[in-house]
Design goal:
The structure holds two protein chains of two kinds. In chain A, 53% of the residues lie in helices and 15% in strands. Chain A is of the alpha+beta class. Chain A has a single domain, classed as Winged helix-like DNA-binding domain superfamily/Winged helix DNA-binding domain (Arc Repressor Mutant, subunit A, Orthogonal Bundle), CATH 1.10.10.10. In chain A, β2 (62-68) and β3 (74-80) form a beta hairpin. The longest helix of chain A is centred in the C-terminal third of the chain and has 26 residues, at 82-107. In chain B, α4 crosses α12 (367-408) and α16 (530-547) crosses α20. Chain B folds into five domains: 4-56, no CATH class; 68-116 and 315-459, no CATH class; 117-314, no CATH class; 468-511 and 725-860, no CATH class; 514-720, no CATH class. In chain B, strands 3-4-9-6-8-7 form a six-stranded mixed beta barrel. Chain B is of the alpha+beta class. Classes of the chains: A alpha+beta, B alpha+beta. The A-B interface holds A 2, 26-28, 31, 45-48, 50-51, 53-55, 57-60, 73, 75-76 and B 5-6, 9-10, 13, 23-24, 27-28, 30-31, 34-35, 40-44, 47-48, 50-55.
Chain lengths: 109, 860
C-alpha cells in the first residue's frame, strides 16, 4: 500500500469508495472531497490516490471512463461498481468493529 | 483472493500498458496543475511506479531487464558466447535426435489400442517344434485373462479386377483382431460379428494403399464386389468390400507389413497374439493359457515348458533396444561433457568479472541480484542453444530418418515420419534445458564468495589468486569432463575392437558379391510337387548361362542360426552329436567359396537321383570319427517332431567341408549338408548368384529367365548377402555413432583443460615472471602446471573407469571377441586421454615459461 501520512493503512481505499458512493468523480475531485469531508484533518499525500485507484480498478470495485469536466477538459472519471458498493459495506462494518474494539481497550480505565 | 475477472484485468493491463501509463501520467499532470501547492502531490515518478506495481507485473519487467542486460554482456564476449551456444546446440541436437529415435521405437507404444496389453503367444521355446492341436484351444475358457484372441493368417491373393491380375497381400483375420487392435475404418464400416456368421455374404476390408493406387480413393469402393484367387491353389472367392482400412494399419513382423485385403477367417487357426484384460499379470495369463492348452494338446513331451507370452512391443524392438539405449547414453554423456565444459567457462568468466561484481556489490547489489544476473545469462545461452539444437534436429531428422531405419534394420513402428521432434521429445529435451539453464550459472555461486571488496577494487590488475574452493570446483569440473570423455572413449574402443574382430573373423564362406533373391511359384500350376524341383533346376541352369556366374539353391540363408538335428554315425550305438542341418543344391560349396577338406561336393546327379549322400563339416567329422577319415562312412540325422525323434535314412559321407559360422559367435559349427530333393522343396525358393554385376541387372535377367519358364513365377528384388549381416551392421552403426560422439567430447575436454590452464597461467603471470627472472628453467615452470594437471587428470580417469564399469553393460550384447573389461582397450584409452590432457596443459604452460619476465612484470 502507498504510504499515506496521517491515515491508518488501508483506510484510503475505504475513503475513496465512500466518496465515490455519492456519484462518479475524477481524481482531483476525489482528493478535494476527502479533504472537505475530513475538514483537512486527514492530510493525504494527494498523489497516493492514484496507486490506490489502480488497486480499486484491479479489484473491479470501480470503473474508469473518459468524460468531460465542468471546465470542458477531457478527464477520467471513476464510478463505483456494484462489487465496489458491497466492498464499501464490508470495509465500513469491519472498520467500525475494529475501531470499537480499539476504543473499548483504550477507554478501559 | 484471485479470481478470473482479476486475472483478465491484469492481462488487459499488460496488453494496454503503454496507453494506460500515458493516461495516468496526463491525469496526474492535470491534477497537479489544479493544485495550489503541487509539492503536496508527492513524487509523480514514484507514484506512477507504485501504480504500475499494483497490477503485479514487476517480475516480468525485472526479467526483461535482466535478459536485456545479459544479452548486452554476452554481446561483449562474443568468443565465449559463440563457443557456448554452438557446443550447447550440438549437445542438445545429439540428445534430441537420439531421444527422438528412442521415442519412435521404444517410448511410444505400437499403433494399436491398448498396445501395452498385446502379447505374442509362444506355444514352445523358439524352434521348429510346437505341440499339436493348438488351433482348437478354447479361448472362451480363459476369458477372464484374455480379452481378445487375435488370430490371423497371411495369404497372397491374385486380384482380378479391371482386366488384369495382380498379387496382393491378404490377411484372413478373426473378429478378435479387429476388436483387439481397435482398428477403425477410414471409409465405410469395419467387419462385425455378422460378417463372421457362416451363412453371411463374405465382407472384406481393402487396404488404404490399394484403395488409393488402384481405385483413386473413390468412395464407391464400398459395396464393390471383388474376385480373388488364393495363391497356391484353391477355388476363387468373391468378397464385397465393406470398408477401407486406416492408412497406418499393418499386421505382422514390422510396420512395412501392410495389408491389401482383410477377409474373415472362418477356419480354426493357431492364435499367435492376444490382448490381455486390464491389470492381468503376464505370469498368471501364461498359467491359465497353459492349462487350457494342456486339455487340447497332442504330442506333448514331458519337458514341455508351457505357453509363454512375450510383449508385442518387445518383440518388435527388443533386439534394437540395447543399440538405441547405448546411443542415447552416449549422447547424454556428450551433453554432460558439454555442460561441464560450459560450467568451467562460466566459472572462469565469473572469476574474471570479480572486479565488476565487486563494484556492483559496493553499489548495493545483493547476492540474489548477482545470482539473478548470472541466471539470466545462463537462461539466454541455454535457450538459444536449445532452440538452435531443436531446429538442427528437425532439419537433420528429416534427412536421416530413412537412413536410421536402414541402419537399425527395422522400420519405426509408426512409420518413418514418426522419427521426429514431437511433444515427448520436446518435453524431455526442454526439461533438460531448463535444468541446465538453472544449474550452470549457479555453480559459480556454490563456492563461498570471498568478497574482499576493498582488495578487489584497489588492485590495479586482474592478477588475483583464487580461493581454494574455486580451484577445487574448477578441478572437479575438469575431472568430470575427463571422466565422461573416457567413458565414451572406452565404449568406442570396445566397439572398434569388436568390429575389427568381426571383420577379421573367417566366416568360412565368401560373402562378397554374393546375391540372394527369392522366387515364388504359383501352387496351382504345379499339381505334382516335383515340378518345383524341375523348375529350380532349369532356372539355375539358364540363369547361370545368362549371367555366366554360378547359381545355387539352398533351404537356409547365411547369418541365421541353423535348425539343429541329432546326428549319429554308423556303429555309434545311438550316440550322436547335435549339428545344424541344411539342404543344398548342386555346386553350393563352390558358389559360396567354402573350401572342401576332403572328397567332393554335391552334384546334379546327387540331387536328381536322390542319392543317400551327405557332406559334413570338419568339426562334425572330428566329433563323430575323431581323426579317422570320414569319407565313405555312414551317417544319419534325426528330426525332432511332435511324436518324438524320427531318424532319417543312412547316408554315405562323400565330402568334408570347412566350418561355416552362421553367426559371429556361432556356438556350434558342426554342420550336416544333404542334397535338396524333389519332395523337400516347395513353391518358395531362395537362390544365390555370385556376381559383381549390379543388383538391378541380375534382377532383370532373373525375371526374364523365370518368365521364360513360367509366366506366373515371381522374383523378389535381390539383396546382397552382406547386407543381411545384421550383427556387423549393428556394431558398425554403433561404432560410427560413438566415434563421432567421442570425438566431440574429446575436443571439448581438451578445450576445457586448455582454458583452465591458460587462465591459471594468466593469474600467476607475476609469480611465474619472478621465478623465471630468478633463473627457474623453463622445464620447472611447465612441470608446475603439469603436476597440478596430472592430479586432476588422474582423478578424472579413475571416475571415468568407475563410470565405464556401469556403462559397458549396455554394450555387452554388441561386443564380439572382446571382454567388457578388455585391459588393452582400458589402457589405450586412458593413455590417449592422458596424452590429450597433458598436451592441453603443456601448450599454455610452455608459452608462459617463454614469456619475457621483464615485460610480464611491468604489465602485471
Amino acid at each position: 500500500m502507498p504510504r499515506t501520512d496521517g491515515l491508518p493503512p488501508g483506510t484510503l481505499v475505504m475513503l475513496i469508495l465512500r466518496v465515490l458512493a455519492a456519484g462518479p468523480l475524477h481524481g482531483y475531485a476525489i482528493a478535494q472531497r476527502i479533504a472537505l469531508l475530513s475538514k483537512d484533518e486527514l492530510s493525504v499525500e494527494e498523489g497516493s490516490l492514484y496507486p490506490a485507484l489502480q488497486k480499486l480498478l484491479l479489484k473491479g470495485w470501480v470503473k474508469a471512463a473518459s468524460g468531460v469536466s465542468d471546465t470542458g477538459r477531457t478527464v477520467r472519471t471513476y464510478r463505483l461498481t456494484p462489487a465496489g458498493r458491497k466492498q464499501l459495506e464490508i470495509e465500513r462494518t469491519e472498520y467500525r468493529r475494529v475501531s470499537a474494539a480499539i476504543s473499548a481497550v483504550l477507554d478501559t480505565p | 483472493m484471485p479470481n478470473i475477472g482479476e486475472l483478465f484485468r491484469r492481462v488487459w493491463y499488460l496488453l494496454n500498458r503503454s496507453r494506460v501509463d500515458a493516461a495516468l501520467r496526463r491525469e496526474m499532470e492535470d491534477h497537479r496543475a489544479l493544485m495550489t501547492d503541487p509539492a503536496r502531490f508527492g513524487n509523480p515518478l514514484r507514484l506512477r511506479e507504485q501504480s504500475h506495481d499494483v497490477w503485479g507485473w514487476h517480475w516480468l519487467d525485472h526479467l526483461v531487464r535482466d535478459l536485456r542486460y545479459a544479452a548486452r554482456m554476452l554481446r561483449r564476449a562474443p568468443g565465449f558466447t559463440l563457443v557456448s551456444v554452438i557446443s550447447l546446440a550440438a549437445g542438445f541436437a545429439l540428445t534430441a535426435s537420439t531421444v527422438a529415435v528412442l521415442n519412435a521405437y521404444v517410448l511410444r507404444s505400437l499403433p494399436y489400442d491398448y498396445a501395452d496389453r498385446l502379447y505374442h503367444v509362444m506355444y514352445a521355446p523358439p524352434g521348429p517344434w510346437e505341440p499339436g492341436g493348438m488351433e482348437s484351444l478354447d479361448w472362451g475358457a480363459v476369458k477372464d485373462v484374455v480379452e481378445f484372441p487375435i488370430t490371423a493368417s497371411g495369404a497372397t491373393f491374385y486380384l482380378s479386377d479391371g482386366g488384369h491380375t495382380q498379387t496382393i497381400r491378404g490377411l484372413r483375420a478373426g473378429l478378435g483382431l479387429i476388436e483387439g487392435l481397435g482398428v477403425r475404418a477410414a471409409a465405410g464400416r469395419m467387419l462385425d460379428a455378422s460378417d463372421f456368421a457362416a451363412a453371411s455374404e463374405r465382407g472384406a476390408l481393402i487396404g488404404y494403399a490399394l484403395w488409393r493406387d488402384q481405385y483413386g480413393s473413390h468412395p464407391s469402393i464400398v459395396g464393390r464386389q471383388i474376385r480373388t484367387e488364393p495363391e497356391g491353389g484353391g477355388s476363387a472367392e468373391s468378397f464385397q468390400v465393406v470398408g477401407v482400412l486406416p492408412p497406418e494399419f499393418y499386421f505382422g513382423r514390422d510396420s512395412q507389413a501392410r495389408v491389401d485385403l482383410l477377409v474373415p477367417l472362418l477356419s480354426p487357426r493357431r492364435t499367435y497374439m492376444v490382448r490381455l484384460r486390464e491389470g492381468v499379470p503376464r505370469e498368471y495369463a501364461e498359467q491359465r493359457i497353459t492349462q487350457a492348452a494342456r486339455t487340447v494338446a497332442t504330442g506333448l513331451t514331458p519337458e514341455w515348458s508351457g505357453v509363454r507370452l512375450e510383449s508385442a512391443h518387445w518383440r518388435y524392438v527388443g533386439q534394437l533396444q540395447p543399440i538405441l539405449i547405448g546411443v542415447t547414453v552416449a549422447a547424454a554423456l556428450v551433453l554432460v561433457v558439454v555442460c561441464a565444459n560450459l560450467a568451467v567457462l562460466m566459472v572462469l568468466r565469473t572469476m574474471r568479472r570479480q572486479k565488476e561484481i565487486a563494484v556492483r556489490t559496493a553499489l548495493g547489489a545483493e547476492r540474489r541480484h548477482l545470482a539473478r544476473m548470472l541466471v539470466a545469462e545462463g537462461v539466454l545461452l541455454c535457450s538459444t542453444g536449445l532452440a538452435l539444437g531443436i531446429l538442427l534436429t528437425r532439419w537433420a531428422l528429416g534427412a536421416i530418418a530413412p537412413i536410421i531405419e536402414t541402419e537399425l534394420g527395422r522400420p519405426a513402428p509408426h512409420g518413418t515420419a514418426a522419427i521426429a521432434v514431437d511433444g515427448t521429445v520436446l518435453l524431455i529435451v526442454g526439461g533438460l534445458g531448463v535444468l541446465i539453464a538453472l544449474a550452470l550459472p549457479l555453480l559459480p555461486l556454490l563456492t563461498p564468495w570471498q568478497l574482499r571488496l576493498a582488495d578487489d577494487l584497489r588492485r590495479a590488475s586482474n592478477s588475483s589468486t583464487d580461493g581454494r574452493s574455486v580451484r577445487h570446483l574448477r578441478s572437479s569440473l575438469i575431472a568430470f569432463e575427463v571422466a565422461g570423455t573416457l567413458i565414451l572413449f572406452i565404449g568406442c574402443g570396445l566397439l572398434l575392437r569388436s568390429a575389427a574382430a568381426m571383420l577379421q573373423t573367417d566366416l568360412g564362406f565368401e560373402a562378397d558379391h554374393l546375391v540372394r533373391a527369392r522366387l515364388v511359384l504359383r501352387g496351382s500350376d504345379y499339381p505334382d510337387p516335383s515340378g518345383f524341383f524341375r523348375f529350380y533346376g532349369q532356372f539355375s541352369d539358364r540363369l547361370a548361362a545368362v549371367t555366366n556366374a554360378p547359381v545355387v539353391f539352398s533351404n537356409w540363408p547365411p547369418f541365421v542360426d541353423l535348425p539343429t538335428q541329432w546326428i549319429e554315425a554308423d556303429g555309434s550305438a545311438g550316440q550322436g552329436v547335435k549339428g545344424g542341418a541344411m539342404q543344398i543344391g548342386p555346386g553350393y560349396f563352390s558358389a559360396f567359396g567354402i573350401p572342401l577338406r576332403a572328397g567332393r561336393e554335391l552334384t546334379r546327379a546327387d540331387t536328381e537321383n536322390g542319392l543317400p549322400v551327405a557332406v559334413v563339416s570338419e568339426t562334425l567329422a572330428r566329433r563323430l570319427w575323431s581323426g579317422e577319415s570320414a569319407l565313405g562312412r555312414q551317417v544319419r540325422a534325426s528330426v525332432q517332431t511332435e511324436g518324438g525323434s524320427t531318424p532319417g535314412p543312412w547316408r554315405t559321407v562323400v565330402g568334408v567341408s570347412a566350418d561355416v559360422r552362421q553367426e559371429y559367435a556361432d556356438p556350434n559349427v558342426a554342420d550336416f549338408y544333404t542334397p535338396i530333393t524333389p519332395t523337400s522343396v516347395g513353391r518358395f525358393g531362395s537362390f544365390y548368384v555370385r556376381s559383381d554385376r549390379p543388383l538391378a541387372s541380375i534382377f532383370g535377367e532373373a525375371r526374364a529367365v523365370a518368365a521364360g519358364l513360367d509366366r506366373h513365377a515371381v522374383v523378389d528384388l535381390p539383396r546382397t548377402v552382406l547386407s543381411e549381416n545384421r550383427q556387423l551392421a549393428g556394431t558398425t552403426f554403433l561404432t560410427t555413432m560413438l566415434s563421432g560422439f567421442a570425438a566431440i567430447a574429446g575436443f571439448l575436454a581438451v578445450l576445457g583443460i586448455y582454458g583452465v590452464t591458460a587462465y591459471g597461467v594468466q593469474q600467476r603471470q607475476r609469480e611465474l615472471a619472478i621465478r623465471v627472472a630468478l633463473g627457474a628453467p623453463a622445464g620447472r615452470v611447465v612441470r608446475l602446471f603439469l603436476t597440478e594437471g596430472a592430479v586432476v587428470l588422474a582423478a578424472g580417469l579413475c571416475a571415468g573407469l568407475l563410470g565405464a564399469a556401469a556403462a559397458v553393460r549396455i554394450l555387452e550384447h554388441q561386443l564380439f571377441a572382446v571382454e567388457p573389461f578388455d585391459p588393452a582397450t582400458l589402457v589405450s584409452t586412458c593413455v590417449l586421454m592422458t596424452v590429450a590432457g597433458i598436451s592441453a596443459i603443456w601448450w599454455p604452460a610452455r608459452r608462459a615459461s617463454r614469456a619475457n619476465p621483464a615485460l610480464s612484470l611491468k604489465e602485471g
